[in-house]
Amino acid sequence: MSDQPAAPVTAYEPPYYAVVFTSVKTTATSAPGEYGATAERMEELVSRIPGYLGMDHADSPGGLSITVGYFRDADALHLWRSDIEHRAAQKRGRAEWYESYTLHVAKVERSHAFVREPAR
């Protein structure tokens, strides 16, 4: 994941899609290594998908991880879902890296944002 300052993905004009991936990792992912490299590669790959809008990610101290990817349309989602490297990473995730996960795909019907004005 990025080392840039925390900021949510901007609000886009609906409709678009949100893919919510919530997971609990195994102890195999607690040390740096192949999981981190694979996560970086997936971020690189998804950013190349036409219609990919961005991603928000957070980890809780208790081990819950939430990643939300945003896509302009169902075609973009299909391209990401069917990417060969992504499919291989999913398979490895089930075999090694995740104790559990859920995946939710939602069509966004309303979206807005707030950004605090700089202090003067």
Helix count, per DSSP? 3
Number of extended strands: 4
- Give the C-level CATH assignment: Alpha Beta
Strand content: 25-35%
CATH topology: Alpha-Beta Plaits
CATH architectural grouping: 2-Layer Sandwich
What is the averaged pLDDT score? Answer: 91
Please state how the strands of the largest beta sheet are arranged side by side.
2-3-1-4
Counting structural domains, the number is 1
H/E topology pattern? EHEEHHE
Query: N-to-C terminal Cα separation, in Å?
Result: 32 Å
Note down, in words, how this protein is organized.
InterPro entries: Dimeric_a/b-barrel, Jasmonate_Hydroxylase-like. This is Antibiotic biosynthesis monooxygenase. The protein has 120 residues and is an alpha+beta fold. It has one domain: Alpha-Beta Plaits, CATH 3.30.70.100. The chain has three helices and four strands. It has a four-stranded antiparallel β-sheet. Strand 2 and strand 3 form a beta hairpin. Helix 1 runs antiparallel to helix 3. The model has no long low-confidence stretch (mean pLDDT 91).
In short:
This is Antibiotic biosynthesis monooxygenase. With 120 residues, the chain is an alpha+beta fold. The chain is 30% helix and 31% strand.
Write the SSE topology.
Blueprint: E1 16-25, H1 34-46, E2 52-59, E3 64-71, H2 74-82, H3 84-97, E4 98-108
Antiparallel strand pairs: 1-3, 1-4, 2-3
Helix pairs in contact: 1-3
Q: Characteristics of this structure?
A:
120 residues; alpha+beta; Alpha-Beta Plaits; four-stranded antiparallel sheet; 3 helices; globular; Jasmonate_Hydroxylase-like; Antibiotic biosynthesis monooxygenase; Dimeric_a/b-barrel
